[in-house]
Task: inverse folding
């Protein structure tokens, strides 16, 4: 019998990359939106808004890719996760829609600009909080019987998920502060450095809490991280996290403009790797692994043809848009 090519690792890589790019790109975008609420005057808000104006909507392409990829490649996981997280997903999508409306109407409805300013800030915060709730609920796992979610629609509300939600708000705030340091000058940049330091401290506390809390919730995770020789093999992850945190703190206190953003990206990447190590190979934690939840090889192969054509296009136009709008943003919306 001819062996069938295993497409699950390929789709895992595509889905994992899509989620990471969304968290990274829309993360700084949402972080800027939350920090936008701290801007002291109209001119400052204009500059902060213009720093993300050329790229904010394109960043959400990765959210669509992640959702469609989960449905197509891992339909069983989609069928369990979506009902379990229905309310936070709904809250996130509504907040993202209202945030987008506020972004556009702020420039076109001057008499109600204050209302749209608040809408943009609160929409960013609610979307981030909802994503953090989803992350916490996913790590904790869901009640599943057979191939169906059997828990309550409110099971996602737990102390752990509330903690991860608040932590993600500070994490996106750190990314947003790093972006503003890259794109702005003067007092706006100085304020972004101050906000970034507060967010970094909160992020490090959250990383420490999650690193302790998660193994306490599950013996398999504790064994994976703390048994010998795993503890030696996996030690580079916490060591690299500590080094990245130190470098980010130095960049925030120094004159480096790129260092803060790069450090925040590294902290997110290392946290992402840590979660992946803890849960691998589960896609529905503690119930189904990637292979058990996957669609048929024929289906994955068919979808992969279009995806491998589309993915380079997304990467090229995303990279091109960031290249075109590189440099500092001015109050008039221009770049230099």
Result:
């Amino acid at each position: 019998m001819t062996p069938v090519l295993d497409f699950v690792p390929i789709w895992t890589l595509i889905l994992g990359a899509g989620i990471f790019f969304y968290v990274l790109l829309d993360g700084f975008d949402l972080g800027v939106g939350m920090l936008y609420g701290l801007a002291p005057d109209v001119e400052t808000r204009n500059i902060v808004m213009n720093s993300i104006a050329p790229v904010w909507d394109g960043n959400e392409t990765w959210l669509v890719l992640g959702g469609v990829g989960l449905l197509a490649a891992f339909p069983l996981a989609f069928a369990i996760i979506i009902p379990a997280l229905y309310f936070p997903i709904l809250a996130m999508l509504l907040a993202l829609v209202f945030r987008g409306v506020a972004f556009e109407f702020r420039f076109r409805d001057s008499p109600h600009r204050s209302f749209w300013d608040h809408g943009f800030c609160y929409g960013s915060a609610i979307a981030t909080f909802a994503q953090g709730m989803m992350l916490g609920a996913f790590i904790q796992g869901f009640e599943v019987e057979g191939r169906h979610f059997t828990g309550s629609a409110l099971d996602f509300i737990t102390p752990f998920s509330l903690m991860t939600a608040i932590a993600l708000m500070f994490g996106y705030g750190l990314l947003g502060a790093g972006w503003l340091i890259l794109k702005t000058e003067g007092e706006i940049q100085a304020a972004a450095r101050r906000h970034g330091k507060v967010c970094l401290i909160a992020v490090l506390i959250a990383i420490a809490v999650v690193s302790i809390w998660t193994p306490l919730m599950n013996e398999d995770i504790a064994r994976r991280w703390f048994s010998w020789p795993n503890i030696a093999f996996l030690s580079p992850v916490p060591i690299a996290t500590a080094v990245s945190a130190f470098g980010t703190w130095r960049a925030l206190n120094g004159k480096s403009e790129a260092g803060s953003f790069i450090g925040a990206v590294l902290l997110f990447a290392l946290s992402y790797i840590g979660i992946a190590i803890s849960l691998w190979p589960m896609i529905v934690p503690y119930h189904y692994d990637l292979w058990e939840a996957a669609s048929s090889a024929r289906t994955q192969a068919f979808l992969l043809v279009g995806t491998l054509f589309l993915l380079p296009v997304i990467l090229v136009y995303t990279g091109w848009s960031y290249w075109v709008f590189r440099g500092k943003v001015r109050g008039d919306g221009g770049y230099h």
Q: What stands out?
A: The chain has one domain: 8-324. The longest strand covers residues 282-284. The radius of gyration is 21 Å.
